[in-house]
Design goal:
31% of the residues lie in helices and 18% in strands. It is an alpha/beta fold and 239 residues long. Strand 2 (31-34), helix 2 and strand 3 (62-65) form a beta-alpha-beta unit. The protein is globular, with a radius of gyration of 16 Å. Bound molecules: 2-amino-2-deoxy-6-O-phosphono-alpha-D-glucopyranose.
């Protein structure tokens, strides 16, 4: 795995945008998995600017959300559907997101993952990392072969989304996620982490044992992962 430590969140966004734009230039019809969360927002701002200025042309890519909440409407503020609408303003061939109001979410997310596989899987998957070590919504306890599924969200993860749902009681209790197995099928993976509050989990994910309790540690088994960290998120690393 490659680890790049950059001075701050703005530098992480620019470096990630460089990698994504290079991947899209090499394969204009690439399948991209893109995350939600606060961490990638500067990246999306950078990509919006570069696409508007003609420095990057993602207009032929297919973008896939990697997770979504259950039991919400597509119009509910705080859903990933709304997040992508708000932050991804560059033109793409299509942007797919699981339907948060699917009546059979388990079937729905399995069909969603199957459609990605039939389309050749993800060429490039960008991930954030939750404070529980989750990637997409694969919470602690997620095995290496965990499939796309409905998962109960931890209190920590629900708390992290409280503000965007108008309080913790508004945050859905469950999410739908691509599984660890689906994410590891991506050809290339980029993980973004910024801020000192991620330092301990970054160390566990990169240097700790590979185990279900730290879902991001499964990334150690992938042949092409680049970690893009700011100095604060990297401060606990010893390697
Ligand atoms: C959410 C998403 C993840 C994301 C994580 C980190 O729960 N499901 O895909 O990586 O939170 O979010 P943040 O970047 O805000 O720390």
């Amino acid at each position: 795995m490659a680890i790049r430590v950059l001075p701050d969140a703005a530098a992480v966004a620019k470096y990630a945008a460089d990698l994504i734009c290079a991947a899209v230039a090499a394969k204009p019809r690439a399948n991209l998995g893109l995350p939600t969360g606060g961490t990638p927002i500067p990246l999306y701002e950078e990509l919006n600017l570069r696409a508007a200025g003609g420095a990057c042309d993602p207009s032929a890519v297919l973008v896939y959300a990697i997770d979504e909440f259950c039991d919400a409407r597509r119009t509910t503020p705080g859903t990933n559907t709304q997040f992508y609408r708000e932050h991804i303003r560059f033109r793409t061939r299509a942007l797919y997101c699981p339907n948060p109001s699917a009546t059979e979410p388990d079937l729905h997310i399995r069909a969603y993952a199957e459609a990605i596989r039939r389309g050749g899987s993800l060429d490039l998957c960008v991930l954030g990392i939750g404070q529980t070590g989750h990637i997409a919504f694969n919470e602690p306890g997620s095995a290496r072969d965990s499939p796309a599924r409905v998962i109960e969200l931890t209190a920590t993860s629900r708390q992290a989304h409280a503000a965007s749902f108008g309080g913790i009681e508004g945050v859905p209790t469950h999410g739908m996620t691509l599984g660890i197995a689906d994410l590891l099928e991506s050809t290339t993976i980029i993980v973004l982490a910024t801020g000192g509050h991620k330092a301990d989990i970054i160390r566990s994910a990169i240097e700790g044992p590979i185990r279900p309790e730290t879902p991001a540690s499964w990334l150690q088994e992938h042949p092409s992962v680049t970690w893009l960290l700011d100095a604060a998120a990297a401060q606990a690393l010893t390697i």
